[in-house]
Specification:
20% of the residues are buried. Helix 2 (25-31) packs across helix 6 (109-120) and helix 4 packs across helix 6. 42% of the residues lie in helices and 0% in strands. It is mostly helical.
C-alpha cells in the first residue's frame, strides 16, 4: 500500500470515532431527563442521590466536594472524557464494579452522543459555555 492509500485508510478508520463527538444538545436535554432523578446540572445544581455534573469532562471520578462516593468510584482512577463516559453510561456496573449507581445505562449510541453534547455545555460553575 502506498502512503496515500494508508492515509485514506486511517481517515476512514477515524471517521466513526469522530461521529461520536457530534451530538445534539437539545435532544440531549431530553435524554438527560432519565438522569435527573439522581443528578443535577446547571447554575443551581446540587448533589442529590448522585453528584452534580457541572464540568464533568476533565475531572476525576469521586471528586465532587460534599458527595459521598462508593470506594469503587473514588478509587477507579477515572478522569472523565467522552470515551470513558460513553463506556460508563452504557453500563455503569460493568465499567466500575461496585459503583452505587443503580441506573441500567443508556443503550442507544445516539442518546449517548446527545447527552454528552448536553453535559459538555456546562462548565464547572454550571454556566453554559
Amino acid at each position: 500500500m502506498n502512503s496515500r492509500g494508508f492515509v485514506v485508510m486511517l481517515a476512514l478508520l477515524a471517521a466513526p470515532a469522530a461521529a461520536h463527538a457530534d451530538g445534539d444538545a437539545t435532544l440531549g436535554q431530553k435524554v438527560f431527563l432519565k438522569c435527573r432523578a439522581c443528578h443535577q446540572i446547571g447554575e443551581n445544581a446540587k448533589n442529590a442521590v448522585g453528584p452534580e455534573l457541572n464540568g464533568l469532562f476533565g475531572r476525576h471520578s469521586g471528586s465532587v466536594e460534599g458527595y459521598k462516593y462508593s470506594d469503587a468510584n473514588k478509587n477507579s482512577g477515572i478522569v472523565w472524557d467522552e470515551t470513558v463516559f460513553r463506556e460508563y453510561i452504557h453500563d455503569p456496573k460493568a465499567k466500575v464494579p461496585g459503583t452505587k449507581m443503580t441506573f441500567v445505562g443508556l443503550k442507544d449510541d445516539k442518546d449517548i452522543d446527545n447527552v454528552i453534547a448536553y453535559i459538555k455545555q456546562f462548565g464547572p460553575d454550571g454556566k453554559k459555555q
